Amino acid sequence: YSGIRIGPVVKKDVMKASIMLEHDSQYATILAFDVKIEKDAQELADSQGVKIFQADIIYHLFDKFTSYREELKQRKRDENKHIAVFPCKLKILPQYIFNSRDPIVIGVMVEAGIVKEGTPLCVPSKDVS
Predict the structure, then answer these.
(1) Annotated Gene Ontology MF terms (predicted)?
(2) Which domain holds residue 28?
(3) How many Cβ atoms are within 10 Å of 90's Cβ, its own excluded?
(4) How far, in Å, CA of 91 to CA of 103, rounded?
(5) Looking at the whole model, is its pTM more than 0.85?
(6) 110 and 89 in contact (C-beta within 8 Å)?
(7) Is 64 among the domain residues?
(8) Residue 87 phi/psi, 5° resolution?
(9) Is 127 within a domain?
(10) Do 67 and 92 share a structural domain?
(11) How many CB atoms lie within 10 A of CB 43?
């Protein structure tokens, strides 16, 4: 649900935005460009968890909203990082193959991504050079 209205932010606007709390709370936001926010509307937004972004310059409003979205993404990443598997690309260093049988002990160079303990590995080709 989205809506556009001209004039100050009132309680009715907050009530409409609060509907999104049932679906996805990150979208329970109001972007107020160059308008006032009534005191009772701000209090209702604070109590219900609706975020109100206010700015007199449209670029500042955009920056506030995008930084809020990035903050939410980072928070979600941090919450799920213990179960997420992040991809990485490794290059096996042939001079550092210490044990080629189970358990395999080798030296690698990380070409992309991050290697963490417990990361599952696969070998797309047998070429180790």
Answers:
(1) GTP binding; translation initiation factor activity
(2) 11-80
(3) 17
(4) 18
(5) no
(6) yes
(7) yes
(8) -70, 150
(9) no
(10) no
(11) 12
Residue 4 lies in a domain: no
Residues 6+ apart with CB under 8 A from 99: 105, 106
Looking at this protein, which amino acid is placed at residue 53?
A: F
> What number of other Cβ atoms are within 10 A of residue 106's Cβ?
14
Helices 39-48 and 11-18 pack at an angle, to 10 degrees, of 20
The answer to whether 28 and 21 are in contact (CB under 8 A) is: yes
**36 φ, ψ to 5°?**
-85, 155
- Given a contact cutoff of 8 angstroms between Cβ atoms, the answer to whether 2 and 17 are in contact is no
Nearest to 3 by CA among 35, 31, 38: 31
15 lies in the same domain as 69: yes
Kindly give the confidence (pLDDT) of every residue in the chain, 129 residues in length, as a single tens digit, with 9 standing for 90 and above: 678 889 999 999 999 999 999 998 888 999 999 999 999 999 999 999 999 999 999 999 999 999 999 999 999 988 887 787 778 888 989 999 998 888 888 899 999 888 887 777 877 776 655
One domain, residues 21 and 59: yes
How confident is the model at residue 102, as a pLDDT? 83
